């Protein structure tokens, strides 16, 4: 679940690791937006070159990024096939009922594939080089303006970071309870679906009860340590905007300009 | 097949967990205000029940006086109301009647946050009080709540981690720590806040013997050398025997107040009082029952074996 939720942080000292999480978060989102500006070979090649540069700068082997694509491969293939079979325009190669394959369709298919891969590489880059807690801190500062319209940004960020901290604890507990049930002769993963679901129920109830108790204990402990809302709180962890962060922003502005210039 | 199902449930459970914490944090306790009293903690005729439907009081007419610098042990059966008493002192629950004075100030809605600054609490479950993403983040949590400057925070966190000998683990996440280490981090979190009183609510009960002894000696150091007033709620006879005074809670009432030495004369009754009596101690009571004289002081396994060997040689 750890991996499913957040990707995985890889410790490192690279340039990308040391960028301010606020900038990294914002630029990652921004990247996803400008990927949609690409509409020809030149623009895709430019974006791919950028991403490869970032991957190189992060000192993380390409394999980790390719692994990031794997869980989504079916979704990607499905979208690509839709593009190939249902695009119109250009020279028709093949035609059957509602399906047509045209040269335009094939090109669109390749473009959609590239778009997915670019976006996945970029978000993988973010999660590989930024700790979950930095992400949650970064989100908090980025969303701070929303406190003006009474969105409890601070509380949400705190809950997020507590939830992140408890993911491994809850997973451990699941394993423990599963083993305890196995020891009592429960067989997980045997029989038909209904049977399997039945076998999981005795697992879910203790888990649920325990997370209930944990939440209560945790709230008491937080209150005992003087927690009374986000107001007037200071921050232990520092977020520091350095020269490199500004350079990254300038790079992205230049990139946007180049894209607008190159696209048809 | 079921594994994704369990994962999905876990994610749901996590959301529920976050929601629950949020609700709990929004609910706050209320108090009324009044004058001052002597002694670091003074409790007068305190009554409390968890829900109006309860016929019995969960705390019933409790009177308790704690001196400054004292180490008070609180013992009693499971469900006798020890934790409830601790929570009442820290204003985490709202009493039905009676008053609580902490360091000369009456516990009221206005004084609540001020009083909490004077009290540090360390709870039983090492996992359920670890709020931060890593060790230093957790120690800093209480400081952040008080709005302390970042530079001051860094100094205090470092100092506190040194006291509990966890300075080498500052960047560790909780998954990479043992129960005893997490409890030491919790203690550092309390130390960084520089309270006057520290309440340990069965803080050693989930630890292995080694972790338990480390925490007990840390409590001793805090009380004897650094002058903290300590209240330790415990089932552990080693912990209770180090205290200046032992209070017995039963059924929401304070049933006894004695020196540890007096208490340990009581033999097997100790078990009825909610203490886990270790084997050498039980053996001693049984010997006494059979008319064999034993030393009156508390004996651990080693000194029991020594004494037994010596008595055999004598005969
Ligand atoms: N959050 C709660 N809501 C309702 N009732 C509670 C709650 N917490 C405790 N109680 C009840 O209050 C009584 C006293 O509980 P308390 O936790 O103070 O006992 P304790 O002496 O600390 O026991 P233990 O040694 O098991 O920690 C028990 O009967 C318990 O069931
Ligand atoms: Mg208790």
UniProtKB/TrEMBL annotation, chain A:
Role according to the record: Transmembrane (T) component of an energy-coupling factor (ECF) ABC-transporter complex. Unlike classic ABC transporters this ECF transporter provides the energy necessary to transport a number of different substrates.
Keyword Transmembrane attributed: yes
Topological relation to the membrane, as annotated: Multi-pass membrane protein
Compartment annotation: Cell membrane
Gene from which the chain derives: ecfT
GO molecular function: transmembrane transporter activity
Entry's Gene Ontology cellular component terms: plasma membrane
Ranges annotated as spanning the membrane: 21-38, 72-94, 106-128, 149-167, 246-262
Self-association state and partner proteins as the record states: Forms a stable energy-coupling factor (ECF) transporter complex composed of 2 membrane-embedded substrate-binding proteins (S component), 2 ATP-binding proteins (A component) and 2 transmembrane proteins (T component).
Protein name as it appears in the record: Energy-coupling factor transporter transmembrane protein EcfT
Lineage: superkingdom: Bacteria
Family indicated by similarity: Belongs to the energy-coupling factor EcfT family.
Pfam assignment, any one: CbiQ
Keyword terms, alphabetized: Cell membrane, Membrane, Transmembrane, Transmembrane helix, Transport
InterPro entries, per the entry: ABC/ECF_trnsptr_transmembrane, EcfT
């Amino acid at each position: 679940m750890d991996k499913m939720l957040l990707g995985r942080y890889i410790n490192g000292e690279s340039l990308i690791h040391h960028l301010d999480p606020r900038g990294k978060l914002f630029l990652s989102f921004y990247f996803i937006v400008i990927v949609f500006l690409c509409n020809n070979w030149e623009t895709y090649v430019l974006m791919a070159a950028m991403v490869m540069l970032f991957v190189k700068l992060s000192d993380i082997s390409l394999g980790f990024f390719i692994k990031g694509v794997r869980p989504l491969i079916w979704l990607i293939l499905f979208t690509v096939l839709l593009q190939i079979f249902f695009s119109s325009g250009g020279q028709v190669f093949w035609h059957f009922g509602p399906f047509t394959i045209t040269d335009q369709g094939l090109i669109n298919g390749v473009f959609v594939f590239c778009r997915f891969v670019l976006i996945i590489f970029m978000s993988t880059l973010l999660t590989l080089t930024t700790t979950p807690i930095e992400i949650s801190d970064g989100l908090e500062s980025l969303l701070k303006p929303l406190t003006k319209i009474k969105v409890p940004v601070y509380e949400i960020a705190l809950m997020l970071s507590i939830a992140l901290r408890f993911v491994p604890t809850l997973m451990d507990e699941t394993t423990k309870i599963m083993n305890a049930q196995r020891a009592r002769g429960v067989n997980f993963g045997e029989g038909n679906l209904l049977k399997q679901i039945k076998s999981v129920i005795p697992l879910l109830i203790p888990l649920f009860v325990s997370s209930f108790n944990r939440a209560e204990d945790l709230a008491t402990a937080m209150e005992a340590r003087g927690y009374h809302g986000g107001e007037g709180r200071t921050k232990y962890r520092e977020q520091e905007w350095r020269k490199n962060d500004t350079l990254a922003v300038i790079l992205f502005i230049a990139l946007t300009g180049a894209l607008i210039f190159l696209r048809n | 097949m079921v594994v994704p199902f369990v994962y999905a449930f876990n994610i749901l459970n996590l959301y529920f967990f976050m929601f629950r914490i949020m609700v709990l944090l929004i609910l706050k306790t209320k108090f009324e205000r009044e004058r001052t009293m002597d002694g670091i903690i003074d409790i007068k005729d305190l009554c409390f029940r968890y829900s109006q439907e309860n016929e019995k009081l969960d705390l019933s007419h409790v009177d308790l006086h704690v001196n400054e610098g004292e180490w008070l042990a609180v013992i009693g059966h499971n469900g006798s109301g020890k934790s409830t008493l601790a929570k009442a002192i820290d204003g985490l629950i709202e009493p039905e009647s009676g008053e609580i004075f902490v360091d000369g100030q009456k516990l009221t809605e206005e004084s609540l946050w001020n009083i909490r600054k004077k009290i540090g609490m360390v709870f039983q479950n090492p996992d359920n009080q670890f709020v931060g993403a890593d060790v230093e983040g957790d120690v800093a949590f209480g400081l952040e709540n008080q709005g302390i400057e970042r530079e001051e925070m860094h100094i205090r966190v470092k100092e506190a981690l040194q006291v509990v000998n966890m300075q080498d683990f500052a960047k560790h996440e909780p998954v990479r720590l043992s129960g005893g280490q997490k409890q030491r981090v919790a203690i550092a979190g309390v130390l960084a806040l520089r309270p006057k009183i520290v309440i340990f609510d069965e803080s050693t009960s989930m630890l292995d013997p080694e972790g338990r002894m480390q925490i007990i000696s840390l409590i001793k150091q805090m009380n004897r050398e650094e002058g903290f007033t300590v209240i330790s709620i415990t089932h552990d006879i080693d912990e209770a025997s180090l205290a200046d005074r032992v209070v017995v809670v039963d059924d929401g009432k304070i049933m006894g107040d004695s020196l540890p030495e007096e208490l340990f004369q009581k033999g097997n009754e100790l078990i009825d009082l909610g203490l886990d009596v270790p084997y050498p101690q039980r053996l001693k009571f049984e010997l006494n029952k059979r008319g064999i004289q034993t030393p009156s002081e508390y004996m651990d396994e080693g000194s029991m074996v020594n004494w037994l060997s010596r008595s055999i040689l004598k005969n």
